[in-house]
Structures are given as structure tokens and as C-alpha cells.
Amino acid sequence: MKNPDEIKEIVKEKYGDIAKQSKTVNEASCCGTGSCTGVDYTVFAEDYTKLKGYNPDADLGLGCGLPTEFALIKEGDTVIDLGSGAGNDVFIAREIAGEKGKIIGIDFTDEMISKARENSDKLGFNNVEFRFGDIEKMPVTANKADVIVSNCVLNLVPDKEKAFKEIFRVLKPGGHFSVSDIVATGELPDSIKSGAELYAGCVSGAIKKEEYLGIVEKAGFVNIRVPKERIINVPEEIYLQFISKEEYDKFKASGVNLVSINVYADKPEKEQSCCGPDCCN
Q1: How far apart are CA 130 and CA 168, in angstroms?
Q2: How far apart (Å, rounded) are the C-alpha atoms in residues 10 and 51?
Q3: Own/partner pairs for 108-113, CB < 8 Å, 24+ apart?
Q4: What is the separation of C-alpha 189 from the centre of its chain, rounded to a whole number of angstroms?
Q5: Which one is the CATH code of 4-266: 3.40.50.150, 3.60.150.10, 3.30.70.260, 3.30.200.100?
Q6: CA angle, 164 as apex, 217 and 213 as ends, to 5°?
Q7: Contacts of 177 (CB under 8 A, 6+ apart)
Q8: How far apart are CA 223 and CA 158, in angstroms?
Q9: CB neighbours of 74 closer than 8 A, spacing ≥ 6?
Q10: From CA 20, how far away is CA 166, in angstroms rounded?
Q11: Residue 149's beta-bridge partner residues?
Q12: Per-residue pLDDT of the chain (281 residues; tens, 9 = 90+)
């Protein structure tokens, strides 16, 4: 696997390409970027079209769940969407939070930020903002958000511990997050982990579910739960672009699956006091 900076550049490039296309074009191609050299991002996606606030111009067929479904957003809330893309979840969240709410989308792909701002301008929203920034170091002050959502993006962050620490920092005391992401039910083989294209396609960056939830707990969150999960079936032909048939057969025989999960957790109302010999170190 490449180093974290190289991974980020690959992700930027791939999602920059996707931003230039429509959902229709993405779904018509075998990989979501108009050629057969990558992963079909749409195999992960769920149907947004029945949600209030849905805007087809903001739907690029990305994501792996519906994070706002479990986000418990209230009218007037400040909501931050991590990896906001063309604005899909931002506009859904804005419908729920209403005119008194504040919705901030954060993305580190220039093309996505431009597309999202264009979509927002068309809708005439004055309480929606898109900021260029890295999830590992958000351009947001501490204790800002009531709710944080994210859709199949934290999987792409090389340092997930840092990302969840940032989520904790930015949430208000008593705030919470609801994210959809891809995890694995076991250890992915090295042949899949080493694929940079598979990383950008949310495959090789999938860590074990228990490890993922452990990172959330380590960051300080409480009331952690998984209200929804489903197995993702990535077509064989996609894997075979990156690994041999023998490696693929061995992977399938291992019984390891990719799973889309929705994770919900609260930031405690008050800072937890030291409870043992190690927690204050």
C-alpha cells in the first residue's frame, strides 16, 4: 500500500473525475469514472430519491448508506457532512434542520466543492456552506456541531483514529454522529489491501468491524450502536482487475465479506473524569 499522502492524492484524482460526470454516466460505466480501470462506486449506493430534500444534481451515485436516516437531526441544528461531495447529504440534512439550521459540507476535492456550491446557488440556500478541508484536520472550531454525518468517506481516510478524534473535537458536548461506511467481517488479504485503486473505491481501506468500533470508543464516544448493516457484493470482474483468479477464489473461500454499516455514537455531555491509573496519561 502507498503512503497516506499518496493515497489521498489518488482519492482526490478519482473523485475529481467523478465530480465532472453525472450519476447517469457513472452508473452507465463499469467503474463510476467512465472507463473500466477502477471500481464501480455505485454498487455500494442506496436509493436517495424518496428522501425529502433530494436533489438529483447532487446525487452522483456515491455513498454506501443513508446516514441522515439515523442522525436524529432536529430543526435548528448545526450539521456537518464529512466528504460532502456534490452536496447530496447536505441538502437532505438542510431539509430536516430547516431555515434555522446551519449545514456545513467539508470536502478536499476542488471539483466536488465547486459542484456543490453550484448546486447550492441554484437552490438559493443561505444557511448552507461548503468548505475545502481535510477530515483529519477540519477547518471548524471546537464544539461547533450538533450532528455530524458522513457517507462512505471515513473509509477513505488513512488515519481513522485522527479522523474520529476530530469528530469528537468538533461536536458539541451531548452532540452525536451518524455515519455510513464500509467495513470487513474479517481480515482482507494483502493482495486486496495493496490495491490503490481498490482503496479509492472503498474496498481495500475497509478495516474489521470490531476494529472500526474500537476506534470510535477510543476517541471518547459513548452509546455506540450499529442500527443498520448489509453485505456488499462487489462483482468478481472488478476484483479480477487487481488480483489473480487464484487470489480471488482464496478470498471468497475465506468467508470474509464487505459490509455497509451505519454507526451512531454520542459525545458525552461532560468531560469524563479520570477513572484509573492509565486514563490520565
Answers
A1: 20
A2: 31
A3: 108/8, 108/12, 108/132, 108/133, 108/134, 108/135, 109/11, 109/12, 109/15, 109/16, 109/19, 109/85, 110/16, 111/15, 111/16, 111/19, 111/20, 112/15, 112/16, 112/19, 112/84, 112/85, 112/86
A4: 23
A5: 3.40.50.150
A6: 35
A7: 147, 148, 149, 150, 167, 171, 221, 263, 264, 265
A8: 25
A9: 96, 97, 146
A10: 29
A11: 81, 178
A12: 567 777 777 777 777 777 777 665 554 433 333 333 455 445 577 888 889 999 999 988 888 899 999 999 999 999 999 999 999 999 999 999 999 999 999 999 999 999 999 999 999 999 999 999 999 999 999 999 999 999 999 988 889 999 999 999 999 999 999 999 999 999 888 877 766 556 555 676 788 999 999 999 999 999 999 999 999 888 888 888 878 899 889 989 999 999 999 999 999 998 665 454 455 44
What residue segments make up the domains of the chain, in order of their start? 4-266
The secondary structure of residue 80, as a DSSP letter, is: E
Q: Indicate the DSSP class of residue 189.
A: P
Question: Of the candidates 150, 149, 144, 147, which has an alpha carbon nearest to the alpha carbon of residue 170?
Answer: 144
Cα Rg of the chain, angstroms: 18
Model-level pTM?
0.87
- C-alpha distances in angstroms, 92 versus 67, 79, 155, 164, 213? 10, 11, 22, 23, 26
Q: How far apart are CA 196 and CA 161, in angstroms?
A: 20
- Residues facing 79 on adjacent strands: 103, 147
CA angle 228, 147, 59 (to 5 degrees): 65
CB 254: neighbour CB atoms within 10 A?
13
